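Technical note accompanying the year-one report. For the benefit of new consortium partners, we illustrate the data format agreed upon in the data management plan: each record pairs a sequence with a structure-token string. No post-processing was applied to the example shown here.
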Amino acid sequence: MPKLTAKQTKKDSGAEARAFGPLFNKDLGQHILKNPLVAQGIVDKANVVSSDTVLEVGPGTGNLTVKILAQAKKVVAVEMDPRLAAELQKRVHGTPEQRKLHIMLGDFMKTELPYFDVCISNTPYQISSPLVFKLLEHRPLFRCAILMFQREFALRLVAKPGDELYCRLSVNVQLYAKVDHVMKVGKNNFRPPPQVESSVVRLEPKNPPPPVDAKEFDGLLRILFTRKHKTIAANFKQTTVMNMLEQNYKTYCSAHEMMVEPDFDIKTKVLGILDSVSMADKRAAKCDLDDFLKMLLAFNHANIHFS
């Protein structure tokens, strides 16, 4: 076979890019994973078994899908772009895998999800955060999710107290799931290459989930992570925060037919609660999950709520 010249190779790769180019919609954040070794590695991390139903988000042209189909009982693929869905359908047509694949056409965030054991996603980066919380709210609970994200977002998910990227997102997700970073994926593993590096995380929901009101917990974190390096007392002393908590307290008392104390002072009450759990001088950036839960419980016992 004659050797290809550099010019011919460039010409062929250009032709391939043009052939696939119209399929990819940058507005939808479409970057197709092209490296088969990475695709297999992602499926392996999910520990898919032959009885599993796998939910795949954004299957694209199916490079991951075909590897999942080889191991799973059923794959439910949610795809927003009808052109890519048609490509995927065409790819499995006439194969034994065809009957195992069910494509749901539509926006993942607006789709009512069916039962699934495992989720695998090469996630469109603009829906990273909503996707994580939609999965965590899904019932019945799934076994695990293997999710590809922009590197910095993935590192926020797994960040620990004291890490620079530790934030409200880290705590909210770690309340409901065990999260591990499983692999880095360079931008050249995608077509077209994204502008950022990617990482894959493994998310395993806590079962049973902790009996915590998610909105209430997030309300507390919003206050604490506004300025995560300031003392917790300093964050609570902000006028807007004090006014909100006073209003919440009075609303709670009214709804439960309780009298507000004649000498009631929200600042005294809040700082007293923080002192009672030794949290006034701590900083959110260094607090762990137990610290936040301890604080929420103390406030709730004093009838102060955050949502």
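Partners are asked to follow this layout when depositing records. Residues 1-22 have pLDDT under 50 and may be disordered.
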